[in-house]
Amino acid sequence: MLLEDLIIETLKKEVVPAIGCTEPVAVALACARAREIINNTEIDHIDIRVSPNVYKNGLSVGVPPTNEVGLWIAGALGFIGGASVKGLQVLDCIEEEQIEIAKRLVKDKKIKLQIQDTIEKVYVDVRAYCKGASSRVIIKDKHNNFVYSEGNGKVIENVLENSANVKNTKQENTLYTFKIREIIEAIERITHKSIDFMLEGYYMNERVAMAGLNENTGMGVGYTLNKNIKKGILSNDFMSYARALTAAASDARMAGLKMPVMSSNGSGNNGLTAILPIVAYSKKFKVSNDKLAKAIAMSHIINSYIKNYIGRLSVLCGCGVSAGTGAAVAITWLMGGSIHHIEGAIKNILADISGIVCDGAKVGCALKLSTSVASAIQAALLAIDNRIVPTGNGLIAETVEDTIKNLQILSNEGMKDTDKAIIMVMQRAYVS
Question: How confident is the model at residue 168 (pLDDT cuts 50, 70, 90)?
Fold first, then answer.
């Protein structure tokens, strides 16, 4: 397969619409499939087991279209009214009556949740018990990847059993074996007709951002930054507008706004960070649709490339270290930067914000998105002026590929117990 075709295939798999934070949505999706198997909503109880990373990201984030947070209400909603055929938009058709039923199920403690002892980043195991019927569904590796299902003890699907080694059920994408410069050059060669589907995410995420700018939702980070731009306290420049736009979208999404966002590598906030700085750039400077589509593609692919090393869910903030890096690459390219400058921007941003941890999805994520965008733009500006962090400064290696591998060591080896500490702190605050 040509590299260009591999890039297009990866984009179509990893860049998809999602309504709500993807961790509670994955739980809702599994619960929806469990209900569909037994075709019964008269719950005795539902046991939900999730990986530590899914638990961390789902504990305190808003679940559309409710005013509730957490995995419990997400599971109940998915079971009562979700449609698994909609994938990550499983909660799109939930009605008010179903929300009230779901709230009662949570209140009556019919939704039981526990952390599964697993090294998997994305793992959801749902076991539903109704009158005279039961079902079980497992999602693994990706938020919408069903690997096991059964009804009344009869196996329907078992991807795990069909693999000689459970760990090998995750198919490796050969795209990530290429050098980043080869990938950028390949995207430049792709015809506009083949890449213009990237613009759907441009308009989708812009709509969410405008909702956050116009209404004070979540923490109101983007709303407040924009208010201060209008007052003249902040300048109405590219960086200020990009920060406000991206943070506003996160404000709205983390508060549970029922609008789809274009996700990136399984994360809606990653999708916002990957796309909205490019939207902001296009509002300040004239850019053709062809260049916009290719810049967005670069941003998504770099996000996916880095997350292949640190994990789809990680102890590190993906919005900063992966999606922010993608945005830095796209901005550098839009500004006319060479491959040398693009690689420099990657080194600059990873030298800047590689230590930001992910302490779960929540309204406060808007702050991290704002920081990531500022760092991305700064990294691009410095790189274009040939101000690049030298080799040997901390994590920065001779090549960008080795720098990303250093980031992997930091995340997967150096910080392997950090998630446990974060979850312990979060449980003290949110779980009685």
Answer: very low
Lookup: tokens for 76: 């109940």
Q: In what order do the strands lie in the sheet containing 133-140?
A: 111-115, 43-50, 123-130, 133-140, 146-151, 154-158
- Give per-residue pLDDT as tens, 252-299: 999 988 899 999 999 999 999 999 999 999 999 999 999 999 999 999
Domains and their CATH numbers in the chain: 18-169 (3.30.1330), 174-430 (1.10.4100)
Cβ(373)–Cβ(209) below 8 Å: no
For residues 243 and 370, is the Cβ–Cβ distance under 8 A?
A: yes
Residue 234: other Cβ atoms inside 10 A: 18
Residue 257 to residues 71, 146, 253, 274, 321, Cα–Cα distance (Å):
16, 26, 5, 20, 25
Q: Is the peptide bond before 65 cis (omega within 30 degrees of 0)?
A: yes
Q: Could you report how far apart the first and last alpha carbons of the chain are, in Å?
A: 53
pTM attached to this predicted model:
0.92
